[in-house]
Specification:
The structure is a homodimer of 761-residue chains. With 761 residues, chain A is an alpha+beta fold. Chain A is 27% helix and 25% strand. The longest helix of chain A is centred in the last third of the chain and has 27 residues.
């Protein structure tokens, strides 16, 4: 069953529109909440007048920052820690009078319907005291008065660094030292389903139904934000229309919970608009990198130095973990005796940076892989050749976090496959000496990526199975289907280990923290690895219990009993159907006991997935246009659980990566920090017309750590396209772009500066 | 915690209207189904024309008996049996062209809304061939042509008998032989919430949300009725507005499931009207009894003989189990060396008899306890004295079903309490020689009642618990809250065994067969006994796991660890809070594993609860009116789990029992079998104005078999009032009524026959 391209278990329901998302489950007579957002970028509320809004017919309740309890809470979807030092920063409250970014949450309206709620918002009057707005991290870290958060006078949320070997000496010893700076933009996840939840009370407890990747964490954070015992909160997660990390944050669920309490437990819905999803949820951090490398005569890296400045925006959210993930990546995969890195995470008055597919690596990898090309160019070496020379073959492990290791390592095979696809050798030569406005080039990049978060943080997953009367099996996991196909591969895993048909595994897609085994959720490409481990063990346990019960029904059996496709086999011969056995265990008058199994498993392992991207582009320099002619991602993600789903995962990630490289950026007004293009019309994502065939290649290494030989695949596909395209543009034009996306404006300005096209007008 | 009158865990939500019942959970855009019922009492459909109805705008689908698959299925809420001989009778299909009672289900309409569905029903045209209607069992068992069901040519669904000792000889040896016949009426449960369900499809499976006492059984029967694997069905049970056994049958859920399949999986709601609930669901069987007893010179029973004829109505449903339960009761509790009984269950053309609170015993007990008075009168002995002389003291067990035994027996204490309350001695004398039209009397009755169904059928229950991060506990059971307070007492049990506060037990009230531990449901007064056993064991298991984990956190602890009110105690001293422990088990980086426990427990035990009722009445013979002045039930139900809830349970049962004695009966047209009073206006239930203070008395014996010393209490309260009132009327007037209810018409006719009041006009 593992390795087969079975259709998704939810395919039919999702294609026919029958699958139920949060909005499909909303109760009749549900009240509607809307949030009043600040219209300044930095400052404080001097006065707020809600009287006119409250007088509006149909308005049920208005709460302002003055009405909410003070329980500062953290929002990131991380496992909690019992050690204070490892806990996330708690720097926000349900509502605030201290405005830290344009759009900050000041008040909320609860009304009988959406129109009334919207009208009420327009009747609220607020007076502000304004402070200067700072949207650039390197400026913000010089400090501001007042600071963005009182606890961090210099606006620096966190700083960390490390040094392996002696980088300064390495630089001195180097034949060539190359330095360059890179910057990545603020972008947004743009999941199809905007953030939405509804909440009500039930027997003195709060129930929140939410489109989230992390129901068990939402439960905990609501408890923290409201200052109530966590067990008083129940979170339900239906199907969700994408998250990409934005729903790995606890966003408006705590406010939604508070609002239902404020109206005596009546159901209240809180659904964001697309504009709010852009501005008031999370973004991918913009990070600035200053990199340096020293190489020896042979082109070996002998010293590397990274200084990174991450723009956190107004609140801590996932905070320093993002830039820190890049610092770790900086020391992996390429062999280099002397490596140094430091990173700053800096509060500014911008929308809040959080988790987004690949968690800091798209930024760091853009910088690193652009830089690898720039270093190769500086020493006149083929960029692929330069990388191969410096890449570690086979096993390696992180210098500090030992479990983070390449237990299997298919990067060289990946590079071979990618280079062949793009005709690297031929095209690097063919495109060497072009003239004219339209030029072509090939570029590439590579990456390695952790599977889950151990040992940086906790990894734990739960699974429960029960045997139905017909011999089919119910499967519950705390891990979440977020569109990636998790339900399907978990079902495949159960079928594989139980030797059953897939159609006899019935997975419960909805998580309900009251009854669902604990799992931290969908992030860090962890689920098929961590939860997969729990599913496998749970299936093994269920099988053991089934065979033990079979023994009681077959007291004279002397041979080995096995479970195979709905039958108990004794020495390979069918002796009892699983349905018969199940009926006995349910209904036997002598010995009935329904067979269930449950596992809660801490997973103390990790493994590095790897892969690369190759792109061929055509650059129309006069138009400032990059057309991607061919593109491939080649992944070593261990054994593929479902090749079809794996390809779709890669294609989706490549599309995202291309948008990151070419067009996506959330623009902010310099003076107010107000987002300028927070709509899907103005924010430019890839469309089908921008997208060539997306080729997904795989090198299947059977990973010894993966429960079914598998490694991370959820996030990595988004990593390589942006630097591969940038490097292809470099190859085509000789111009090294150090900032993505490669928009027409940025391209034209650079080509003009390089004298490749004339300055017009 | 056990024995405390804590408020119901669902009290607040139910009082404020927030508790969600099936109708509150119905999805938007749900289609509405209505059933087309036969308008003859016996016959077959010659032709059916749905064309006009189908042409109506808004009609989505019409199915008739010709469109449904043929999978005859059983409907009673019994555990399934792997032995064919023990399986329930499968004598019905989803729809039928062979009409067996007035109202039988011929077709169903699915429409966009209720009005359209109702209009469509009126456009369906049916032609019938009619057969003679038979509503009396002793006539029906003579046979009919054609028989009601082809498989039972003589219309006898089942017959059973037994004889202990030699009854004929006993009768010969007796000083006095008394014979009498009794008859009980057809009545209806009249639960507040009519039967309702809605169904939809999800990933190729069928989901049915239903107001049922037995979700896991509904799942199975839908599978049987549709001929699909049982694992393809998911049943969800929200709060339900009463059932009293009527929702211990699988009624329209299979048809509802079929209808959603017929419309491609769209959600379809099927809600019965009150009239349909009266006619098309289930009723309490009318049973006719011929009894005889021989007593010796001292007033000891030396022979007893029962012949019972149960009117099953048109379909088997719970069938012979009802009358058989009375046959068993006939040989229990009263000592008698020679006992014989036989019972017939007979198909007729009446609404279907099924389970109703106390499952055959209100009928048998009415006959038996009226008879005990009649025998006492025959030998001129005080009825209470006569009973005491013949009752078994202390332990006794059933002659055939050994586990059915009085492991504790408080009947004598109950009688003492009841007699004192009603002032038996004084009033039996005081009312001995009355004259005039208005007379008073005191009467009593007693009973014993099994707890659960073992060893007649399977008893199995499941429970699962998980420890929350705040040290509170989630509790899931497959047993069902149906208004009786089950959720509250299960929570108390968990709190008791875990030594926790009740507020820290969070019970999941909704059952969902996909995730809820298996349990057969709410019936037979089984849950606090059978499920209670599973809850207790599950709590013990959870406690063991908590203490084992505590050991890992307290490696230096040498003393005994205990769990007490949120703390781990070592030798009685607090050493760790349960919250700290819980946080560690969730989040420890060294050893995290969320603590859960699950039990699926077969319970091979039973125990007899007992009790009595005493009533004082005033009979206005001219008006044909019985006024109950004082009434008490005294129960030995073992240790009371929650005295307040127990009292409420008793009061509700007493009200039902009074209605059974005085006013309730479903009247049928002799010629067509058409119910004549199938509305709450015409069918006379007790109201507050008819009801005196209802006194609930208890004798708390600590039963050795009950998990917390408890025995049956759910059903028994409904048993004693009817015969106690009838016996009080006998005491007041000297007239022995042998048929309930004691309606004005029946009273006046009897008093006229007895010459107590004049025949007018």
């Amino acid at each position: 069953m593992i390795g087969k391209s079975v259709p998704r278990v939810d395919a039919y329901d999702k294609v026919t529109g029958r699958a139920r998302f949060t909005d499909d489950m909303i109760l009749n007579h549900c009240l509607v909440a809307k949030v009043y957002h600040a219209t300044i970028g930095n400052g404080r509320v001097i006065s707020i007048d809600t009287s006119e809004a409250e007088a509006l017919d149909g308005v049920v309740k208005i709460v302002t920052f003055k009405d909410v309890p003070t329980h500062p809470y953290p929002t990131p979807g991380h496992p909690w820690s019992v050690e204070t030092a490892h806990q996330d920063v708690s720097d926000r409250n349900l509502l605030t009078g201290r405005i830290r970014y344009y759009g900050d949450d000041i008040a909320a309206v609860v009304a009988e319907d959406e129109v009334t709620a919207s009208r009420a918002l327009r009747l609220i009057k607020v007076e502000y005291e304004e402070y200067p707005v700072q949207i650039h991290p390197r400026e913000s870290m010089k400090g501001s008065n007042p600071p963005i958060h009182q606890e961090k006078k210099d606006n620096i949320l966190a700083h960390s660094d490390y040094e392996i070997g002696d980088v300064d000496q390495g630089m001195k010893d180097a034949a060539v030292v190359v330095k360059a700076s890179y910057k990545t933009p603020i972008i947004q996840h743009c999941h199809i389903e905007n953030n939405i939840s509804y909440a009500y009370m039930e027997n003195g407890r709060i129930v929140v139904v939410s489109s989230t990747q992390i129901p068990h964490i939402v439960r905990r954070v609501i408890g923290q934000a409201l200052g109530i015992p966590w067990g008083k909160v129940r979170v339900i997660k239906p199907y969700i229309g994408g998250g990409f990390g934005n729903k790995q944050d606890v966003l408006y669920e705590p406010l939604n919970a508070f609002l239902t309490m404020a109206v005596g437990g009546r159901a209240v819905k809180l659904e964001l608009t697309r504009e709010e999803t852009f501005v008031n949820t999370r973004t991918r951090h913009s990070i600035e990198y200053d990199l340096a490398a020293g190489v020896d005569e042979d082109g070996h890296l002998i010293a590397k130095d990274m200084h990174a400045y991450s723009n956190q925006g107004a609140y801590a959210s996932h905070g320093h973990a993002i830039v820190a993930n890049g610092l770790t990546a900086w020391r992996l995969q390429y062999g280099c005796p002397n490596v140094r890195a430091e990173g700053y995470t800096i509060y500014t008055n911008t929308p809040v940076g959080g988790a987004m597919r690949a968690y800091g690596i798209p930024q760091a990898n853009f910088a690193m892989e652009c830089f690898m090309d720039d270093v190769a160019y500086a020493i006149h070496m083929d960029p692929l050749e330069f990388r191969k020379k410096n890449l570690i073959k086979g096993f390696y492990q992180d210098a500090y976090l030992k479990p983070i290791a390449a237990h299997s390592n298919g990067i060289f095979e990946c590079l071979k496959k990618g280079a062949e696809f793009i005709h690297w050798e031929e095209k690097r030569k063919e495109y060497a000496n072009q003239t004219g406005n339209i030029r072509r080039g090939v570029g590439m990049s590579l990456f390695s990526y952790k599977t889950g978060v151990w040992p940086i943080s906790l990894e734990i997953a739960g699974a429960r199975m029960s045997l139905n009367q017909d011999g089919s099996v119910q499967l519950q996991v705390g891990a979440t289907e977020i569109g990636q196909g998790a339900d399907t591969v978990f079902s495949q895993m159960a079928a594989e280990t139980l030797h059953m048909e897939l159609e006899n595994i019935h997975i419960t897609s909805v998580q309900d923290t009251d009854v669902t085994p604990f799992d931290t959720g969908a992030y860090a490409s962890r689920q098929s690895f961590v939860t997969g481990t729990a599913v496998k063990e749970c299936a093994q346990l269920l099988k053991e219990k089934i065979l033990a019960y079979a023994k009681t029904l077959l007291p004279e059996a002397v041979g080995t009993l096995e479970l195979d496709h709905g039958y108990i086999l004794e020495n390979g011969e069918k002796v009892l159907s699983l349905e018969q056995l199940a009926l006995e265990c349910y209904y036997s008058l002598t010995n009935s006991s329904v067979i269930t199994a449950e596992v809660s498993r801490q997973v103390k392992k990790n493994t590095l997935a790897t892969g690369c991207g190759f792109a061929e582009v055509e650059v129309d320099m006069a138009l400032g246009k990059v057309k991607v002619l061919n593109i491939i991602n080649v992944h070593d993600s261990g054994k593929l659980l479902n090749p079809q789903l794996a390809s779709m995962q890669v294609q989706g990630g490549m599309s995202m990566g291309m948008g990151y490289g070419l067009s996506e950026q959330l623009l902010l007004d310099e003076k107010t920090g107000r987002p300028l293009n927070a709509t899907l019309l103005d924010y430019k994502m890839m469309t089908m017309m921008d997208t060539p065939d997306l080729t997904a290649g795989f090198v299947e290494m059977d990973d010894p750590e993966g429960p079914y030989g598998n490694k991370a695949l959820g996030e990595p596909p988004a990593i390589p396209p942006a630097p591969a395209i940038r490097n292809a543009v470099l190859h085509a034009t000789g111009v090294a772009f150090n900032e993505n996306p490669l928009t027409p404006q940025r391209l034209i300005e650079a080509f003009q500066r390089a004298g490749l096209i004339p300055v017009v007008g």
